[in-house]
Amino acid sequence: MLTQLSNSLSKMQLPLRLALQNGPSLDLGPDPAVTLKILDSGLLAELTHPTLDVLGEAYIDRRLEIQGPIMQVMEIADKLSMAAPSDLSASPLERTAHDKALDAEAISYHYDLSNDFYRLWLDPEMAYSCGYFHSSQDSLAQAQLNKFDHLCRKLRLKPGERLLDVGCGWGGLARHAARHYGVTVCGITLSQAQLDLARQMNAQAGLSEIIDLQLQDYRDLPGEEQFDKVVSVGMFEHVGHANLGEYFRILQQQVKPGGLVMNHGITAKHTDGRPVGRGAGTFIGRYVFPHGELPHLATAVAEMSEQGLEVVDVESLRQHYALTLEHWSSNLESSLAQASTLVSDKALRIWRIYLAGCAYGFRKNWINIHQILAVRPHADGSHELPLTRADIYS
């Protein structure tokens, strides 16, 4: 069977060694840098036309082991998946009717895993979103501070303003905005673990009086026109295509006329929002972000516009997210022994594949990420934004 597999993959000439447990091995190219150790011989038939979800699932189910640098593993897995028939190369578009219970369950699954696990590979402020690199030499911690400041500058935050942070995570952006821009912040999250640690970090920073974080669904935000500015970072990926209109309607409703709304989120490559092909999207949906849906930039802009928000600035941070994920993956890879004491073996395998795979995916332009800045104009169509972006960079 190993010989048959070699025949089907021989044209690829990969730096890959296939090794059967307690059996022979086969090199698919010279100087193999990666070894796939096959623990289940039944997997050999599937490897003749493997998709990325088949490979990922085989690893997390311990049907195979991987040896070698994790980023090279991702590159070789991608090349292996190119042998898959064309009818398996793209997943169908699935849209879920997101309700509060479903979203709370999905958020808890992903974010309540273990604060200590996340702390292993995130920066000190626990920013679990794309950093902003002034240079590729920036540290992860510096890139996250850069990101916080970039968002605050785009929002033109001023002392005394009220900021709504939708999907506030561990509160890093809220603390930065309160500490350096003199605003009061209301943040909401659906993760109890995030909320508990964020409140603790706020208290340690002496900011509890001006940062109010709550466990709350965005659909339960009370009142209207309560905030001068609204920011949403890494949140709308969980909203679902069917709910985007309602989501942006609520953000528009919460901000005062003349106020700014910033949406920072991952966007799909394809205009119809279907997942990336060859099984990568399927794997992420099944094991990492259940019920997550990525809208295309055009869809996000259209939905914001329909809800009365005028889009005034759009910036792609795709290369920044590739760098961010590479830092996260490297941090996790250097802490595998400690990570294994904090989460289950299966969870750790999922996260190894996920972080490295997403870094690879952003590098390859399989997915993108955009900061979309919008204003809620006054009734006469006016707003107070500067004529240029010069103030952001001054």
TrEMBL record:
UniProt keyword annotation of Hydrolase present: no
Keyword Transferase on entry: yes
Record's keyword terms, sorted: Lipid metabolism, Methyltransferase, S-adenosyl-L-methionine, Transferase
Annotated CDD domains: AdoMet_MTases (cd02440)
InterPro entries found in the cross-reference section: CFA/CMAS, CfaB-like, CMAS, SAM-dependent_MTases_sf
Similarity comment: Belongs to the CFA/CMAS family.
Annotated protein name in UniProt: Cyclopropane-fatty-acyl-phospholipid synthase
Organism: Halopseudomonas salina
Origin organism lineage: Bacteria, Pseudomonadati, Pseudomonadota, Gammaproteobacteria, Pseudomonadales
